[in-house]
Design brief:
Number of domains: 2
Number of strands: 10
CATH class of the largest domain: Alpha Beta
Largest sheet: 6 strands, mixed
Oligomer: single chain
Structural class: alpha/beta
Strand content: 15-25%
Number of helices: 6
CATH superfamily of the largest domain: Spore Coat Polysaccharide Biosynthesis Protein SpsA, Chain A
Shape: globular
Distance between the termini: 36 Å
Helix content: 25-40%
């Protein structure tokens, strides 16, 4: 299977200006994801998608291909990951190069364990999924079966059940996306106009170091995690 590794990095971060090329423990944030992608054996091609010339220059210095510059209309806060991926697929289609799937690797999730990307691709292919995402287990206290929603001034169990599950051990596992990997078949992206499709696989990263960098507090957490990792 021919898989495009796509690293999106726009220039307009407001929470942390210049986030994608800001130095995190001596390396541009972008570099952590580049290195993880380069360690993967099952990505056919790895490229950057960015609107920002400074990010493009930085990426090229780090050895990452940047064959196009993302248009400004796909670089705002309202731009979706799906639109960014579709733009890349269309670019390569014009170059007469087609991919079976795209693996989106966001720089804001810099910690990926050894072989995580290859493990995800192997599971994606073996399970014949439309898409596969990396997830972490929801702590019991936030499990949807223990969460309430408000309706007409009173609370109802979010799942619609009449009785709450009383024992933690009986709670079904629930997961949330961690942002490290989005892997989707090209036909699902283009024909179904979907990032997920109908059959969604997952790879569990619950035990791995984790941060999704959006705020200065997230950045500080990433620095602490890196210090802990390097001390081991």
């Amino acid at each position: 299977m021919k898989i495009l590794g796509l690293i999106p990095a726009r220039g307009g971060s407001k929470g942390i200006p210049g986030k994608n090329i800001k130095l995190l423990k001596g390396k541009p944030l972008l570099q952590y994801t580049i290195e993880a992608a380069e360690r993967a054996n099952l990505l056919s091609t790895i490229v950057l998608s960015s609107d920002d010339e400074e990010i493009i220059i930085c990426a090229k210095k780090l050895g990452l291909e940047a064959p196009f510059q993302r248009p400004e209309e796909l670089a705002g806060n309202s731009s979706s990951s799906l639109e960014v991926i579709q733009h890349a697929i269309k670019f390569f289609s014009k170059e007469a190069e087609k991919f079976d799937a795209v693996c989106l690797l966001q720089p804001t999730s810099p910690f990926r364990r050894e072989r995580l990307i290859d493990e995800a691709i192997e599971k994606f292919i073996g399970g014949e999924f439309d898409s596969l995402i990396s997830v972490r287990e929801v702590p019991a206290e936030f499990n949807p079966h223990w969460v309430f929603k408000e309706k007409n001034g009173s609370l109802k169990i979010a799942t619609g059940e009449k009785e709450i599950i009383s024992r933690r051990q009986e709670l079904p596992k629930a997961y949330y996306r961690d942002g490290a990997i989005y892997l989707t078949r090209a036909e699902v992206l283009m024909k179904q106009n979907s990032l997920y499709g109908k059959k969604v696989g997952y790879i569990d990263t619950t035990g791995d170091p984790y941060v999704n960098i959006d705020t200065p507090e997230d950045w500080e957490k990433a620095e602490r995690l890196l210090s802990m990792i390097r001390e081991k």
